[in-house]
Amino acid sequence: MYKNMLSTAMKITPLRQIIFGLFVLFFSSQTIASPSVITGHITTAILASSCSSCHGPNGVSSGPSIPSIAGIPKEYFLEIMLAFKLNQLPSSVMGDIAKAFSRDELTQLADHFSKKRFVPSQQPFDPVLAKKGAKLHEEFCEGCHEKGGSSAKDKEISILAGQHLLYLRWTLDDFKRNKRQATRKMAKKMRKLLKLEGNAGLDALAHYYASQQP
């Protein structure tokens, strides 16, 4: 229901209008206009503020179905956002949001959030499943998602450890159903994991990544 409401709101009020509104609101309290106000240039800070309502301040999300984007590799951020923009990745609202930004603006955002500190989510998890998930991760995922999923061998891979459990589980299911395109290596590993463990294996992985908290 929330996603449908948000989607409708985005259609009524284009994101660029929201960004501009934030821009005007922020600087209306300033005594002297900065050059960026005079020229109409939208700064990175203003661009990033349009992400905070869903992804949280500084990209640290508090919503269970929304990922934190702080600290993720800028190459991954840009790749995903361009995929949303070009309708290559299914979404409820992100496609419309991404279309409101130019490639240069997306590059600005990618660089901005890559420099923020990733904060693992404090959340409940099943310790039995997490223990099983740790073993599955070591066998199937550690080769690319290093250090238990907190780091990436490839800069076009995101952080898994500490993301929200619900988001992790939904994303794994998207890859399983081919709603998101996996690399050849990942697809092969997932097919093998599903053959051995089924959906229970995906549940275990999600709980393992969710268990990695301060």
Structure, described:
- The longest helix is centred in the first third of the chain and has 14 residues, at 15-28.
- This protein has helices at 2-12, 15-28, 35-39, 44-55, 74-85, 94-99, 103-114, 127-140, 146-149, 165-176, 184-197, 199-211.
- The model is unreliable at 1-13 and 18-40 (pLDDT under 50).
- It has twelve helices and no strands.
- Helices cover 60% and strands 0% of the residues.
- The chain is mainly α.
- The chain is globular.
Overall pLDDT, averaged? 83
Indicate the low-confidence ranges by residue numbers. Answer: 1-13, 18-40
Number of distinct beta strands:
0
Radius of gyration: 19 Å
CATH level 1 name of the largest domain: Mainly Alpha
> Approximately how much beta-strand content do the residues carry?
under 5%
Largest sheet: none
Topology (elements, then pairings):
Layout: H1 2-12, H2 15-28, H3 35-39, H4 44-55, H5 74-85, H6 94-99, H7 103-114, H8 127-140, H9 146-149, H10 165-176, H11 184-197, H12 199-211
